[in-house]
Amino acid sequence: MPAPYFDRLKxxxxxxxASTAFPRxxxxxxxxxxxxxxxxxxxxQQVLSLANPPxxxxxxxxxxxxxxxxxxxxxxxxxxxxxHRFPTFIASLPMNNIKATLQEIDxxxxxxxxxxxxxxTNVAGKPLSAPEFRPxxxxxxxxxxxxxxxxxxxxxxxxxxAEQMSENEIWFTFGWPYETTACMTRLIYSxxxxxxxxxxxxxxxxxGMIPYFAGRIALGFRQIFFGEPNRNxxxxxxxxxxGDYFKMLYADTALNGDVAATAxxxxxxxxxxxxxATDAPFDAEQGRGLIAKTIAAVEALDVGAEERASIFSxxxxxxxxx
Length: 322
Fold this sequence. Notes:
Elements: H1 3-12, H2 17-20, H3 26-29, H4 31-39, H5 64-81, E1 91-92, H6 98-112, E2 117-120, E3 122-123, E4 126-127, H7 134-143, E5 147-150, H8 170-173, H9 175-189, H10 192-195, E6 201-203, H11 214-219, H12 221-226, H13 242-246, E7 250-252, H14 259-269, E8 274-275, H15 288-299, H16 305-319
Parallel strand pairs: 1-2, 2-5, 5-6, 6-7, 7-8
Antiparallel strand pairs: 3-4
Helix pairs in contact: 5-6, 6-7, 14-15
């Protein structure tokens, strides 16, 4: 979070974690602390993205475009000042104002040098697959740059329908991977990739639940009772088998350094679709633990040096046209 944007955010939403918890995480908003963190990892570089909350959860569709411009200007300035550490950034958008969102995409890409955009799995509760958001994907196909999708769910998503709130941080631990999986499934079944076969979507946390439940993707409830082994009636509107679309997604390695999960995700998506990411600085070590453990998890993959280099940086250089 660029410091000026962070200062404004704390005044806007004093009760959200961005104001109550984020000040403890100095590497999130203190540039000098972030640079000292990166210095511990040699020539490591980061593509910057804005942390939660999504802009559409801030007050008023009339105001969110200003917040987006402020955030993107701040990220672009960090990249200009420290290109050896931050080669580029991805733009944040006022998704509750689509006209302004399309304008900000063009401004961020054409004027500020952004190499993609970040959206969330729902837009203030609306599914990302809703027709009103289609122009955002169409614009990114025109720019030939990727869309990062980050999960968004809060404790108000209860674990059981008879309750009001989630407990034990289930909304975060398991709710976010579910959000990613549900969002991707809705986008695929909406025909998004049939409409835009060249669209590039990067899913956070290695696609959420997708690699682990690949078998259930092929199965489907309707196929059990009304289909055949290779035909799911629920997907007849699609031009290809559902699993083929899931393999069109890209996935990042932000899995808290879990070796087995990283291997599972890599086995599903393949080297060419995996990009190194860490979730830093969101850990109790101000990001150091996440970076170190994720590097170790990628190093542990049973691949050669060339494939490992593709995951660490090569795929990002290609996808972002760096």
